[in-house]
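Example record

One chain of 257 residues, shown exactly as stored in the release files.
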Amino acid sequence: MILLATLFGAVVGSFLNVVILRLPKDDASIVFPGSHCPQCLAPLNWYENIPILSYLVLRGRCRSCKVHISMQYPLVELSMAVLTAILYHRLAFTFEFFFYFVFFAALLVIIFIDIQHQIIPDSISLPGILIGFAGSFLNGLVTWQQSALGVLFGGGVLYAVAYGYYAVTKREGMGGGDIKLLAMIGAFLGWQSLVYVVFSSSLVGSLVGIVAMFHQGKKGQTRIPYGPFLAFGAMTYLLFHQQIEHLWKLYLSVSGM
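Predicted structure tokens for this chain:
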């Protein structure tokens, strides 16, 4: 069953590549035309569309024009396969499995679109908020009250941070897409996840930002997308929330709080 879940995740990951490539384009459909080479536009045969395996067999090049195929394609497929296997191991084929499968798929698309275009599509985050809240009525891991507060606090916290940063620097440091994304995360994971998600994403994002600042030589003008760090924080919280909560209680006990 884990193998079946893994294969299912890889197949969906192949479709997510299409979404990542076409969703940011105003005139592109994620359904039509069928899969094709983005360079020569040659349509792909079924055996060129087998997740991960086709990339290895073709040695990372288009069969028609021989142009190099981005590593993004097998990476997305492999990531979704691994995430699905872990979800099944934790949740089996329950409502929560399919609920958070959709959540992980959305986060994976957001990660790669934000890295490439520095945007988080409203067409993912806004429906995600509604789906996360609606699903909380059937979700055994998060109550609808926790989900509702997650939306309220998730959007509100980042909005306050963004407004405060702009008031001090007169520059936009965080886009509205990040605010909607954290509201979506709050809807799926509840308000109790937000402290960890914001803290971990800020910590990892700051470390990556420092490295990028020295590498690019732009100092304070360096810009990196924040969405991928929020998404990563949400994924790790869902998969390891028990360990995270245990470490938090241990810290409070040691510190005497």
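Notes: The longest helix spans residues 227-255.
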